[in-house]
Recover the amino acids of this structure.
């Protein structure tokens, strides 16, 4: 069905536009931001001590690992894929780190940051190889590690809780910079990097092209396989970082619990934020807002005595509503 | 229901889409037991009119009367139920299901609620026999060749006992013998009192089988007469809205008949064989400044040849030389680096990235060249985009408009610009004017001409014979994945091309795999 | 203009791949059974076989529903949570007897399936996200209704018959398992409905043009999936003697694995109920074998190795499937 605009307007000469159209096309994200604002407002009025720094930090701290994972998830989904393994990768990172800094290795703490993240990044590449080289569908490829990854973490720790106290390592979860929790700053930094990458770099535009029309991207010379590998590797890396934060906050590593259901939370954040699951468009800002909405929703309900179980139902309704609105906008 | 009077009467049909008036008081009248052609250039409105008839679109104004009754089909299913069947150019059947299942999908013969497979197969075989076709009806549809699939589609259509069968470019994948079979079927339908609407741009076929013709141009019906009462040239002239004398003089396309001065050899392909079954042994050579037309039926391997050259598909055998040096392109990126571009056949599935803007689509292949340390240089990007929008006269509200909102012609221009901004030496164009309105079509043809004049080598795949005849310096013809003829400039005529393309293969080839 | 469906080469390839995959699962299953029979005593004992089958009945039912949904090109992530919810409902209505104890939970499952189906078919929303949301909602409902704890079945009622009755020494769940798959094979092989399901998964737009009531068919498959998940929940409640609101985690994913291993294309259009059966038995058998292996005491694999083995197994199977599919060109 032709929807041609035959008006003979020619592109505006000279001034280069700052942002690509898909960023300015923020209808959904304005809606989401408005919803977030409403939630904040509601809590400010009706919830005791909501606007205190403590309360704000608690919320931001709880949501930080999810946001970090969701950043990677956004980029993966933008290529038209999905990553179900992130939760399990978090558990693996969480299991490895204490093993390293509790051992006698030199530079134990530094290694405890670097090695687990590299390992999960490698697992991410593994996902990417299955998808690009061996023709796996993303849902099946990442399902492998979803199933096996947590087992790996459990085997590493024998399923036991590993409590620890290591202030140097735990800075990532408990440290503060000018009073702001470190992981919040980390989250914002990662958000900024990912958002910038998607908007302005060649890599980012290629990611969107692949999700938009992979065949066309390939014919246009885009290195599709390399980009996909990178995308899954990044998702793995970020999952590792998130895992480290979680165990740092808890001062313990429980391979059975770390990262549980995080993949669902991340996908939900991406969907609510306005990034379509089919790929080709991505709003990193939207994902951040989506994660905040879902977090704040839960917080609001909990602080008003609504049982967690009911909160789940409300969350589900929000997700469906958000995706439905997105659909309406598209047609 | 009257037994006299026309079977179908469409009057005063108007339809507008955002920004385009597709139909303006168009009309179509089809008699009983009549084979009626609908002709017009792309964009003339014939497919819109047909889609309104078959329920795919809703009309804005006008009336449709079928057998004396006013009808208003909201969906293809309704049209089917109302006695109007459609056979599309692309086989609209499901590939994994068997032939018999496809014929009866939705109306399977049943026994006690379960499918009566024996009856379904027997009926399916019988229907195909009526068409003079024999096939194993239990095979998956996708495993038989396209021409046979088309016959299955026809069998399905006639199994509905329709009063009117609409055929939209039904012969695009058929060879001579298969076309003859199809014509036999059409004559049989006619004898049974069923009317046929034959949408086609192939003059020979229209003159061979049709009784009357309706000519459309710019959304209007400009003529409706008996085929016997109008000469070919006159028909073409009416389609184009040109004076008869003018058509005689300057042809029907945007190509000028200037022979291009061909210089050095840019590309030479010998004995190329692809990984699938389609491309078997193809040769082609292109010199700088020349337009080589690549002709062949659907499934003859033209697209596969272009893709193999471009590195988009693996090559199993054969040699490829660029500038006299042997090369092997492992991916399109390699070919692009060598100065080659490929504009694919299907814009929608392989060309445009629909959610991205004109700007991003245009510069997609250029990204490595306009990025510094991985960051896209916006200013250079803007400059390139502005330049090409102006040069190709791309009609858009701005470089940030989503490409899917542009008309087919403008989308194609953006896709061409995608390659032109790389300053290539050789362009592989796969059906560059398909699905494009008349005006843009001429513009693109003229553009290709101009590019060749400036030294670009062009390999042009086209199923429109007039494009090949008027545009090519040489024509290479493929059949069954092999190069079967190469026509030098003086020998290029529609008849010569058709003869080389459409000779029947050896008997018993109906069951081969092919795409 | 609607697009053509799969070109010749890839159709034949896919069909052959499907055949190989389905048979491959059977072969792997046979090999594993042989391995187990040779290596462990009591592997083929009536006790092991019947308890294995009874235990896997609920997974089998869920995988059966999943097969049909996947054949339309969709997916249903909510089935595990729906089973949990159904088990709670079953326990709660068990006091009204066996019939109520089965009918009501299954009905709940069907209703949830209808909601899923409506959102997918008419709302035109993606199955992944719709059923993901439903997973959350069903879980939340299950926990809320159960008060965050397991709900005991009424042991005085007829409901317990489900857990205790045997017919020809086979427990009720095994009969239900078998009957469901028998019906499934029949439906897939012989009914017009199944042809429509497959056509829609093959090319939805084309199927619509050919006159199929796409929305209605989709609604039915999701309802079917929900209903079977409901039945699985009933079996769960019977097995544990209580409704378990927190159970069912990850069931949908192992169901998907079983379906894929069995030869059904994840993209839809081609499917095998029998293949899913082999897939379910195969995946279940791995755990069975691991238990036996642990029992031997020679190697002591902690239970955590189970998921690694399962994941690795899925990896190898799909890898082989893809390899074989390519080679069949």
């Amino acid at each position: 069905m032709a929807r041609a605009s035959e008006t003979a307007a020619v592109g505006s000469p000279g001034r280069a536009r700052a942002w690509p159209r898909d960023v300015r096309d923020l209808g959904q994200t304005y809606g989401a931001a408005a919803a977030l604002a409403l939630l904040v407002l509601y809590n400010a009025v009706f919830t005791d001590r909501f606007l205190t720094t403590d309360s704000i930090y608690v919320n931001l701290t709880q949501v930080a690992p999810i946001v970090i994972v969701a950043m990677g998830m956004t980029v993966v989904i933008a290529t038209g894929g999905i990553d179900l393994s992130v939760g399990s990768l978090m558990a693996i990172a969480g299991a490895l780190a204490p093993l390293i800094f509790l051992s006698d290795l030199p530079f134990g703490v530094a290694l405890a940051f670097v090695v687990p993240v590299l390992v999960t990044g490698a697992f991410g590449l593994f996902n990417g190889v299955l998808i690009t080289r061996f023709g796996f569908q993303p849902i099946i490829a990442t399902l492998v590690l979803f199933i096996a990854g947590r087992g790996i973490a459990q085997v590493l720790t024998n399923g036991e809780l590993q409590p620890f106290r290591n202030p140097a390592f735990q800075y990532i979860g408990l440290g503060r910079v000018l009073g702001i929790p470190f992981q919040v700053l980390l989250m914002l930094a990662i958000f900024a990097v990912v958002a910038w990458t998607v908007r302005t770099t060649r890599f980012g535009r290629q990611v969107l092209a692949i999700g938009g029309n992979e065949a066309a991207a390939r014919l246009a010379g885009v290195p599709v396989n390399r980009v996909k590998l990178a995308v899954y590797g990044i998702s793995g890396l970020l999952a590792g970082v998130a895992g480290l934060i979680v165990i740092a906050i808890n001062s313990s590593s429980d391979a059975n619990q770390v990262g549980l259901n995080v993949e669902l939370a991340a996908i939900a954040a991406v969907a609510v934020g306005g990034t379509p699951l089919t790929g080709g468009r991505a709003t990193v800002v939207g994902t951040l807002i989506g994660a905040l909405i879902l977090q704040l929703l839960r917080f609001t309900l909990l602080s008003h005595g609504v049982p967690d179980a009911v909160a789940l139902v409300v969350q589900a309704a929000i997700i469906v509503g958000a995706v439905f609105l997105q659909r309406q906008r598209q047609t | 229901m009257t037994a006299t009077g026309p079977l179908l009467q469409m009057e005063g049909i108007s339809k507008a889409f955002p920004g385009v008036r597709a139909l303006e008081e168009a009309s179509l009248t089809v008699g009983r037991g009549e084979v009626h052609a609908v002709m017009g250039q792309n964009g003339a409105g014939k497919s819109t009119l047909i889609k309104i008839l078959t329920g795919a679109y809703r009309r804005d104004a006008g009336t449709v009367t079928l057998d004396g009754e006013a009808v208003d089909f909201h969906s293809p299913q309704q049209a089917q139920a109302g006695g109007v069947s459609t056979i599309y150019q692309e086989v609209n059947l499901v590939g994994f299901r068997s032939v018999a299942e496809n014929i009866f999908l939705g109306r399977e013969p049943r026994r006690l609620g379960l499918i009566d497979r024996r009856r379904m197969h027997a009926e399916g075989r019988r229907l195909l026999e009526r068409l003079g076709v024999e096939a194993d009806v239990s095979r998956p549809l996708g495993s038989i060749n396209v021409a046979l699939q088309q016959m299955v589609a026809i069998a399905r259509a006639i199994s509905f006992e329709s009063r009117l069968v609409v055929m939209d470019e039904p012969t695009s994948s058929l060879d001579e013998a298969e076309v003859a079979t199809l014509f036999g079927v059409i004559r049989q339908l006619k004898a049974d009192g069923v009317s046929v609407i034959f949408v086609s741009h192939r003059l020979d076929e229209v003159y061979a089988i049709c009784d009357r013709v309706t000519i459309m141009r710019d959304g209007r019906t400009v003529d409706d007469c008996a085929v016997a009462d109008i000469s070919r040239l006159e028909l073409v002239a009416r389609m184009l809205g040109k004076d008869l004398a003018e058509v005689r003089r300057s042809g029907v396309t945007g190509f000028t008949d200037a022979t291009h001065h061909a210089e050095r050899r840019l590309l030479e392909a010998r004995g190329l064989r692809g990984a699938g079954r389609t491309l078997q042994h193809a040769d082609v050579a292109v010199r700088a400044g020349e337009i080589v037309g690549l002709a062949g039926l659907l499934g003859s391997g033209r697209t596969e040849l272009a893709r193999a050259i471009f590195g988009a598909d693996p090559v199993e055998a054969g040699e490829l030389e660029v500038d006299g040096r042997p090369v092997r392109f492992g991916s399109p990126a390699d070919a692009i680096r060598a100065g080659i571009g490929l504009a694919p056949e299907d814009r929608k599935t392989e060309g445009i990235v629909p959610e991205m803007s004109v700007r991003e689509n245009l510069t997609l292949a250029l990204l490595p060249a306009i990025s510094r340390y991985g960051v896209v240089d916006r200013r250079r990007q803007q400059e390139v985009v502005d330049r090409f929008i102006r040069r190709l006269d791309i009609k858009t509200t701005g470089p940030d408009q989503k490409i899917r909102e542009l008309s087919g012609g403008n989308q194609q221009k953006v896709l061409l610009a995608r390659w032109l901004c790389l300053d290539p030496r050789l362009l592989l164009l796969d059906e560059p004017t398909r699905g494009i309105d008349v005006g843009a079509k001429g513009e693109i043809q003229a553009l290709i001409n101009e590019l060749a004049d400036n030294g670009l080598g062009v390999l042009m795949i086209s199923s429109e014979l007039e494009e090949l005849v008027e545009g090519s310096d040489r024509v290479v013809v493929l059949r069954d994945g092999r190069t079967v003829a190469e026509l030098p400039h003086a020998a290029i005529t529609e008849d010569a091309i058709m003869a080389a393309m459409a000779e029947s293969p050896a008997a018993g080839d109906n069951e081969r795999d092919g795409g | 203009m609607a697009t053509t469906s799969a070109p010749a080469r890839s159709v034949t390839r896919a069909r052959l791949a499907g055949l190989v995959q389905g048979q491959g699962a059977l072969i792997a299953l046979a090999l594993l059974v042989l391995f187990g029979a040779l290596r462990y005593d009591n592997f083929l004992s009536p006790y092991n076989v019947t308890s294995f089958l009874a235990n896997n009945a609920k997974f089998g039912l869920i995988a059966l529903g999943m097969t049909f949904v996947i054949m339309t090109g969709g997916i249903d992530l909510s089935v595990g949570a729906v089973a949990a919810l159904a088990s709670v409902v079953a326990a709660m209505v068990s006091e009204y007897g066996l019939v109520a104890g089965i009918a009501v939970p299954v009905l709940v499952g069907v209703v949830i399936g209808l909601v899923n189906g409506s959102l997918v078919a008419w709302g035109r929303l993606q199955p992944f996200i719709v059923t993901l949301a439903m997973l959350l909602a069903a879980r939340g409902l299950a926990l809320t209704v159960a008060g965050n704890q397991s709900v005991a079945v009424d042991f005085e009622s007829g409901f317990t018959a489900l857990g205790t009755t045997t017919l020809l020494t086979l427990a009720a769940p095994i009969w239900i398992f078998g009957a469901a798959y028998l019906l499934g094979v029949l439906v897939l092989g012989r009914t017009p409905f199944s042809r429509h399901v497959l056509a829609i998964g093959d090319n939805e737009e084309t199927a619509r043009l050919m006159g199929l009531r796409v929305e209605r068919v989709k609604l039915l498959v999701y309802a079917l999936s929900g209903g079977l998940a409901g039945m699985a929940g009933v079996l769960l409640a019977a097995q544990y003697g209580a409704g378990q609101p927190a159970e069912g985690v990850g069931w949908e994913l192992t169901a998907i694995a079983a379906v894929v291993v069995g030869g059904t294309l994840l993209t839809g259009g081609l499917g095998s109920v029998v293949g899913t059966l082999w897939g379910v038995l195969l995946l279940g058998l791995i755990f069975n074998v691991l238990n036996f292996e642990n029992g031997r005491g020679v190697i002591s694999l902690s239970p955590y190795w189970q998921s690694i083995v399962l994941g690795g197994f899925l990896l190898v199977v799909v890898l082989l499937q893809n390899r074989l599919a390519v080679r069949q060109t």
Summary: The two ends of chain B are 44 Å apart (CA to CA). The interface with chain C takes residues 76-77, 80, 88-97, 101, 105-106, 108, 110, 113-115, 117, 140-146, 156, 275-277, 349, 513-515 of chain B (CB under 8 Å).
